């Protein structure tokens, strides 16, 4: 804290604020970063139920790690400035008439630009190498993972999801079962309004638009249940549009799907032929 | 209330007869003509929708044409009643028209069409404040409902209507939250002008907004609307008549915004006093300019989009209906092309207020003036190139995600400029932490969190988790409430003493600040966690294990609401009952608005001032030993 200079001519005992502040900031960052990366990082959502979800945990950790120094910079600055650069109550002292610093401004612009560009590059690489990282890729995904894929159609409607398995005779069920460790190709579509298919633990989210085939790739890795919720406001029962999906072993999946084919055989016969989208009835409200 | 004093004060040689005073153009006649227009429009709508009787339509709640026409005619009637038609009609008939409306006189000025920018500023402050409280009340209702994981308080339909009204009211009304009151009041003074470029349009923007606000509230009589503030199709098309209130509200807000922006641009470009070059312009005026550009370019898109939605709803076009050859993507695209600039319309004036106030309270010149200006203009320009980050998971133009990721993250560079200027101005300053300064400091903290959480949303892979969840909700409350509302209050505590001439009670002001700041963070920080734990937005039911956090948030939200009541009490108590006159320049500001007398005379200045510097002439030059002396010491 600066002493109140009453005698002109004698330089007051001003500490080197720049050095002091920078030291505090760097020390705080050195302490905080490992905590964020190693303590917070592994506990970040959405967990490790799929390859995509594991990728998101890494993404979120990277973003937290990048945000930490910035957050500390501003917050420590606010506290430091509040304590060091204050006016005595009722005081009429003036600050220093400095109107800028070209070197500092240039440094700031260069550093923030580098930070931002590296973030964008990182996000792009993650998006394109992880086949869309669990988010909706639209009808023609740019990057398609190689190898066999199990296509599953997610049909959203007010206010439920149903699932169609085109490689199993186009059977449509109200349950979602996926085999573990197999690449799944979800085709998300809607037959009325916009919904969003959110499989929370799998790190999957894709909007369901009428007349649109929104493709998502996901490779579940952990056997167990996951939550399915609608993430786009779709009418009064939007909040009730949730469901449990299941990741099961491949053999269990075969048993289950055979059972479904048998159970729904009468219904499958009268369903429209499998297509990537189903044109909805014009959505006028009942007249 | 307004009739006698208002009518009596109209300047002009012809004194009106007594009976005319009762039927002059005032709020009363506006309401009456508005109601007449409403009825006529409704009847016309029922006639157009032929084959069905008035009673049938009224009973089945179907006739969107009737309601929309009723709103349109009602608004026209309202504006005629206020006297907006007088000037053009007088000109058409070749009669001498009054160039000024009710600029002198007492309280009546505030209740009708007045072309004095200072009156319009006060009208905005009170009018917007009113709807701000309506929106806030909706937020309280939302949090009451979310006390329990299953609905107990209202049904899902009412819940969505409350959510929609809260979002739409806040996004629509608070767009003009700073430009309306403070820019209208202070921009002409700051640039040394006597008025705005288009005073009649200035008044029109305010009254359009008031009409819009009541129209949005009227949605509860027509079943509410289920879409939230985004109004996505085709849910929009399915909805009952309450949706028409949303459409009409936002269309009027859009028109009001575009006109307000146009007026600001014209005023700032053409009416600056001699010597007030662009590089001497107060930074607040720059932020208003940047915002106005956004308003003019973005708002018409909203009006066009909603017109298309209205056509879909009324005469069965299918712009947005997949079954009829349209696309739900089109609405999302058009809406966010408006919607993203809109959020910067909300944020930019806040930057302006913070940087305008900081030099005053730190006794230092604004640090990095040009950087701040380029930051604001940069944000303004870039905000038109980022809108599809709202649609990362929608499957629309999925191959362009890297581009929108890049453009969105780039926008944090000019935003960073503002932070650098903030920190530079505080550096080695002599800050006195009075209430407006506290709100500016809170802005820095809130907007920091808002900005950093935005990085998570701008990263397409990470957005997969957070899109459509409470995380987004927390993010934009940090940027809008933390960015706009906190600076709105900074502006109130800083400028309202000038506008009214009376002091706020300092203790109550500080109590308001601290309670609001703590409760705000206590409300919205946990929402990030809730979002990351998988709670979607706009639901009235959630996983039972999230109840503890939700209850914490709700209680904090009630405290936040209570802090607003402290403000309200403070305003009523200090400005209406106690009325301690404020000193001429309580903040020792060097800006020109504090040099003119209080109350500001109708013409602002006796003589148009001449500027020879920017208003940040604080501090002692660097290098002078003992930099810390009072400026008056002649350093």
Walk me through the topology.
The complex is a heterodimer of chains A (about 290) and B (about 625).
Chain A: H1 17-40, H2 51-84, H3 102-129, E1 150-157, E2 160-165, E3 171-173, E4 176-179, E5 184-190, E6 195-199, E7 204-208, E8 214-218, E9 224-230, E10 242-248, H4 250-263, H5 265-270
Parallel strand pairs in A: 1-5, 4-10
Antiparallel strand pairs in A: 1-2, 2-3, 5-8, 6-7, 6-9, 9-10
Helix pairs in contact in A: 1-2, 2-3
Chain B: H1 3-9, H2 18-22, H3 27-48, H4 54-60, H5 64-82, H6 86-92, H7 117-145, H8 156-173, H9 179-190, H10 199-217, H11 235-238, H12 242-270, H13 283-314, H14 328-362, H15 369-382, H16 401-410, H17 412-426, H18 435-458, H19 460-466, H20 470-500, H21 506-532, H22 547-578
- The secondary-structure class of chain A comes to alpha+beta
CATH topology label of the largest domain in chain B: Cytochrome C Oxidase, Chain A
Number of helices of chain A: 5
Q: Which whole number gives the mean pLDDT of chain B?
A: 89
Shape category of chain A: elongated
The helix/strand class of chain B is mainly alpha
**Helical coverage of chain B, percent range:** 55-70%
Determine the oligomeric state from the structure: heterodimer
| Largest sheet descriptor of chain A | 5 strands, mixed
Topology of chain A as a string of helices (H) and strands (E): HHHEEEEEEEEEEHH
CATH topology of the largest domain in chain A: Immunoglobulin-like
Strand tally of chain B is 0
Whole-number count of domains of chain A: 2
* CATH architectural designation of the largest domain in chain A: Sandwich
CATH class of the largest domain in chain B: Mainly Alpha
